[in-house]
Amino acid sequence: DAKTTQPNSMESNEEEPVHLPCNHSTISGTDYIHWYRQLPSQGPEYVIHGLTSNVNNRMASLAIAEDRKSSTLILHRATLRDAAVYYCILLGESEEKLTFGTGTRLTIIP
Amino acid sequence: EPEVTQTPSHQVTQMGQEVILRCVPISNHLYFYWYRQILGQKVEFLVSFYNNEISEKSEIFDDQFSVERPDGSNFTLKIRSTKLEDSAMYFCASSDGAVWVGDEQFFGPGTRLTVL
């Protein structure tokens, strides 16, 4: 049973913003929304996480819908280095393991 | 910047042989994990380790697998009798605190295991 749904792939031009959507209609009140990414031939790396409010860090922004049934990862100015598979992951209370889906493969066009 | 390291980067072994994959987590981290990724497939959780014991394991982590933190710095994954289907990239990860509230898991670069 998939907890999150993401498009299989997206393309974006270099130096333009990218909006990566994630649907999580069955999210519960204590679930945190985490985003990780996996660059080619590397291990996954943390991007950002949030609970209810929008979040910003040096890598990206996370916009969370008011009903929390969806969220959007925003890369403000994509570079070639941002080409990766992006995973949206829900973590419930006391949950420790990351459950990866198939994610969204982001291609950046120079 | 601190990082998780893994050795070897590539391990080739014969079916039925034992392998030990080694990881050095970030020092002062308390939670340790192993994941694997079969070529072209999803990253799958194997096991989590906290306070010197397994805190959770997946169905994949059967009696052929074991983990150990032998000396306070290394974290190892042992596969006793490898099978062809164990061929995968194995990732070690560590975190300072509870992941679900926001502590990130830091992943190593992986060990590619090839079972012939």
Summarize this structure briefly.
In chain A, 0% of the residues lie in helices and 46% in strands.
What is the H/E string of chain A? EEEEEEEEE
Mean pLDDT of chain B: 95
Using only CA atoms, what is the Rg of chain B? 13 Å
What is the CA–CA distance across the termini of chain A? 37 Å
What spatial form of chain A do the alpha-carbon principal axes imply?
Answer: globular
Walk me through this protein's architecture:
- The complex is a heterodimer of chains A (110) and B (116).
- With 110 residues, chain A is mainly beta.
- Helix content of chain A is 0%, strand content 46%.
- Chain A has a 5-stranded mixed beta sheet, with no helix packed on it.
- The radius of gyration of chain A is 13 Å and the shape is globular.
- The mean pLDDT of chain B is 95.
- Chain B starts with a strand and ends with a strand.
- The chains are: A mainly beta (110), B mainly beta (116).
- At the A-B interface, strand 3 and strand 4 of A face strand 4, strand 5 and strand 10 of B.
Topology:
The complex is a heterodimer of chains A (110) and B (116).
Chain A: E1 9-13, E2 18-23, E3 32-38, E4 44-50, E5 55-56, E6 61-64, E7 70-75, E8 84-91, E9 104-109
Chain B: E1 5-7, E2 10-13, E3 19-24, E4 31-37, E5 43-50, E6 53-57, E7 65-68, E8 75-79, E9 88-95, E10 106-107, E11 111-115
Feature tags:
heterodimer; A: 110 residues; mainly beta; five-stranded mixed sheet; four-stranded antiparallel sheet; B: 116 residues; seven-stranded mixed sheet; 11 strands
